[in-house]
Amino acid sequence: MRNENRTWFSRGLRDGLPIALGYLAVSFTLGIAAKNAGLSPFQAMLASLTNNASAGEFAGFTLISAGAGYLEVALMVFIANARYLLMSCALSQKLPQKTPLRHRLLIATDIADEIFGVSMAVPGKLNPFYTYGIIAIAAPCWATGTYLGVLMGNLLPLNIVRALSIGLYGMFLAVIVPPAKENKILAGVILISMAGSFMFTKLPMISALSSGTRTILLTILIAGGAAVLFPVKSEENAASNTEPSPVYEKNILKKEIIHET
Predict the structure, then answer these.
(1) Whole-angstrom Cα distance, residue 137 to residue 114?
(2) pLDDT digits (tens, 9 = 90+) for 79-132
(3) What's the predicted TM-score (pTM) here?
(4) Distances (CA, A) of 10 to 4, 99, 144
(5) How open is the CA angle 71-77-78, to the nearest 5 degrees?
């Protein structure tokens, strides 16, 4: 069992390397926002270690620079990161039923969009040590990039900083495109999600909501609709459906008896 966990952890480290490189680039720009908010490099790094979410951190740094109180910052960060509650619930269903509670809690402490996407793409059930491997290499790079952004962010040209930020979007496309090629339903859901996300930024009332709130609404509507229209059978039900029925076995037995006589 230990050897199996080590193997999965090594796979997580390998698959998490592109995420780590993307995090290093994107969090660099986040460090600039932290510096403008008056945070020291250590404070910014600590914020990234405890809150691995660009939208939540950026919102928090913006409120801090505006002189907001603790309650306002905490409430805004909670709203911006509320979508991770849904991701944690979905990822929990992918874990084996016998997975201890401690593993579920540890994974939930660092669920981000990219870590969630790569973990959900694993065929079959998810070994927790696979996600641990991704987190072990991605989280330190996120914090390190923020630290370096506070130190050197203002020294780089703005065009280079913007170019670094695009890398994470390309990596996220690499996560969703391969599964979409193999599953037409998944490809359709992804396209609908993209169109819905664009529409939500243009609709009068919905566009006024935060990006995290819009993501939650889209997730509930699209994922809920897909679950109702195209339900996915669990592995247990799929296995039971592949077993021969008693009637089928009885007919086979009759044919064997007739053949022998």
Answers:
(1) 13
(2) 778 788 888 888 888 999 899 999 999 998 888 888 998 998 888 899 999 999
(3) 0.68
(4) 10, 20, 22
(5) 85
